[in-house]
């Protein structure tokens, strides 16, 4: 019998095998496996009330998604609405490819931290064995 490859089941199996606290699936948005940029933006707005900038950061072999302190609704925000939407779509696509969507959703909904001037909220991404695929 030939084994078929199912990326969603493969990704779910990976997360079930990891020793992490189980996420709270009571919220409907937590059931999303792949996330669009608009869904990521809405997650930020639901948690902190603004469309914050997000950036990937790699330090000491670890990858973090950082929620920065600047947000679209500020007059001084350097991106236009269209540029921000393109940027957040790119971030969501990378999260989907990395398999970090559930980790980000869980962290954002459970954290008590909030972005503030000069201090980003750093979300650690546990990529497991896949880290070498994404880190140069």
- Main β-sheet description: 3 strands, antiparallel
Strand adjacency order, main sheet = 1-2-3
Average pLDDT level: 80
Distance between the termini: 38 Å
Q: Assign an overall shape.
A: globular
Protein name: DUF3067 family protein
InterPro entries: DUF3067 (IPR021420)
Describe the model.
This is DUF3067 family protein. With 136 residues, this protein is α+β, with helices and mostly antiparallel strands. The chain has a domain at 52-125: Protein of unknown function DUF3067 (HIT family, subunit A), CATH 3.30.428. It is 40% helix and 17% strand. The protein has 5 helices and 3 strands, in the order H-H-E-E-H-H-E-H. A 3-stranded antiparallel sheet has the order 1-2-3. A hairpin with a 2-residue loop joins strand 1 and strand 2. The protein is globular. It starts with 6 loop residues before the first helix and ends with a helix.
Q: Briefly, what is this?
A:
By secondary structure, this protein is an alpha+beta fold. The protein has helices at residues 7-17, 37-48, 81-98, 101-110, 131-134, and strands at 52-59, 62-71, 121-125. Helix 2 (37-48) packs across helix 3 (81-98).
SSE order and pairing:
Elements: H1 7-17, H2 37-48, E1 52-59, E2 62-71, H3 81-98, H4 101-110, E3 121-125, H5 131-134
Antiparallel strand pairs: 1-2, 2-3
Helix pairs in contact: 2-3
Features:
single chain, 136 residues, alpha+beta, HIT family, subunit A, three-stranded antiparallel β-sheet, 5 helices, 3 strands, globular, DUF3067 family protein, DUF3067
């Amino acid at each position: 019998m030939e084994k078929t490859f199912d990326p969603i089941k493969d990704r779910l199996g990976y997360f079930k095998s990891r020793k992490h606290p189980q996420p709270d699936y009571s919220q409907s948005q937590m059931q999303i496996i792949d996330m669009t940029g608009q869904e990521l933006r809405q997650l930020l707005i639901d948690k902190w009330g603004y469309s914050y900038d997000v950036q990937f950061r790699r330090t000491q072999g670890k990858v973090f998604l950082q929620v920065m302190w600047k947000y679209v609704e500020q007059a001084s925000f350097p991106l236009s609405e269209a540029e921000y939407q393109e940027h957040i779509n790119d971030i969501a696509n990378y999260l989907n490819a990395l398999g970090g969507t559930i980790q980000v959703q869980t962290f954002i909904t459970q954290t008590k931290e909030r972005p503030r001037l000069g201090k980003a909220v750093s979300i650690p991404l546990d990529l497991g064995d896949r880290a070498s695929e994404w880190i140069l």
